[in-house]
Design a protein that fits this description.
- By secondary structure, the protein is mostly beta strands.
- It has a domain of 61 residues: Ubiquitin-like (UB roll), CATH 3.10.20.
- The chain has one helix and seven strands.
- The strands form two sheets. The protein has a five-stranded mixed sheet, with no helix packed on it. A two-stranded antiparallel ribbon has the order 1-2.
């Protein structure tokens, strides 16, 4: 737990850490996308990650840790170290004629 006390009139700012674990800093996060390892240097949402991959969000479906994530929830879905994503990209094709 982190607590902070601020008294700007006396120029004080004190931070108390009651758990070393709270100070843990993640320098990188490893994700697995379609079985391939990918590295992120900062926490991202699913929507941000799809953008980083330069994919159009309206043309992909995403499964996160074996659960399909509805597109409306991508912005609220934070990715974590070790997450496994399966991303299916829809591609249009030509016309069929006889």
């Amino acid at each position: 737990m982190i607590s902070a006390v601020t008294d700007w009139s006396r120029g004080l700012f004190r931070v108390t850490v009651k758990s070393y674990r709270a100070m843990r800093y993640i320098s990188r996060m490893e994700l697995f996308v379609n079985g391939e390892p990918k590295t992120c240097t900062e926490p991202v949402s699913l929507a941000q990650f799809i953008q980083q991959l330069a994919m159009k969000g309206d043309r992909v479906a995403v499964e996160l840790n074996r659960e399909i994530v509805p597109r409306a929830q991508w912005g609220d879905t934070q990715l974590h170290d070790g997450d496994r994503l399966e991303i299916v990209h829809f591609v249009g094709g030509g016309a069929y004629s006889h």
